[in-house]
Amino acid sequence: MRGVRIHSARDLRVETVEVTPPGPGEVRIRIAAGGICGSDLHYYQDGGFGVVRVKEPMVLGHEIAGSIAELGEGVSGLAIGQRVAVNPSRPCERCSYCREGLHQHCTDMRFMGSAMRTPHVQGGFRQELTASALQAIPVSDGVSMAEAAMAEPLAVCLHAARIAGPLLGKRVLVTGCGPIGALSILCARLAGAAEIVATDVADAPLATAARMGAAHTINVAKSPESLAPYAVNKGVFDVLFEASGNQAALRGAFDVLRPGAVIVQVGLGGDATLPLNTLVAKELQLRGTFRFDAEFQLAVELMNKGLVDVKPLLTASLPFENAIEAFELAGDRSRAMKVQLTF
């Protein structure tokens, strides 16, 4: 079969990859759709991110959905032809964190399309892949394969919302309105936030943010002063979802957060310098959030029941043979929100 494999920065190839028959407890999945994530773009544009670098050819992709093509020995509850979203996480189930139910912190995690370990874990941008049956989550007939492939980023944001704590009646600020920021808006709205304000440095993602439920959108590049009214009385926002990974966005939000506010850092970035005096004086709570665990199942259930709509994020679907064109489009924030490959 064929897949989309990264060799080094800007060296993306569509080439033959191995077919692995399913072992006991595994299934072979015929992939239908795969979304290009920010980490996929980092591998393509820069050969990695931070200390994580591509050291050997690796199939990209972890936002994927398809149908069951073959069942391994002992698999029950799934059937040939069944449509599924694929959870890219495969924790070891043996380490101390797995035993505590903190699977996202597994010390021997195998996460699809990741160069964090060597040999790298091959990803899902290929015509077929083999995975644990536990990673295949059935989707309803009313959910398209494109929507099902959005389960992974939705799960990331559901986990971030859980880290934030109760959002009912809260005033929420979201900085950075790429797919993760937009889905954070969706999750905050689902959790009962009273008001959601979104900021970005470009108009196109802000338009999507408004469709996802943001009451107000602010282009801080054009109107940096527009956040100032929210600084009244020591700040008004109860929760910040910082989805840009940019120090300026995080620092700029400190003045508009009320005392005791929760900051959930969703976006990945480099080292940042923070005003610790403000953090202390306003008793702000800075919380990290990493991947997801049970939220993947929840993401699929919410889509199956029609309780969330991710379709406004879906910009384009291109055949996987046109992977380079798709990656170039995905890297252009003025034209794209979520670009997917079809297989």
UniProtKB/TrEMBL annotation:
Name assigned to this protein: L-idonate 5-dehydrogenase
SMART domains linked to this entry: PKS_ER
UniProt keyword list: Metal-binding, Oxidoreductase, Zinc
Required co-factors: Zn(2+)
Family membership noted in the UniProt record: Belongs to the zinc-containing alcohol dehydrogenase family.
GO molecular function: oxidoreductase activity, acting on the CH-OH group of donors, NAD or NADP as acceptor; zinc ion binding
Domain (Enoyl reductase (ER)): residue spans on this chain: 7-341
Coiled coil: none
Matching InterPro entries: ADH-like_C, ADH-like_N, ADH_Zn_CS, ER, GroES-like_sf, NAD(P)-bd_dom_sf
SUPFAM superfamilies: GroES-like (SSF50129), NAD(P)-binding Rossmann-fold domains (SSF51735)
Family matches, as PROSITE patterns: ADH_ZINC
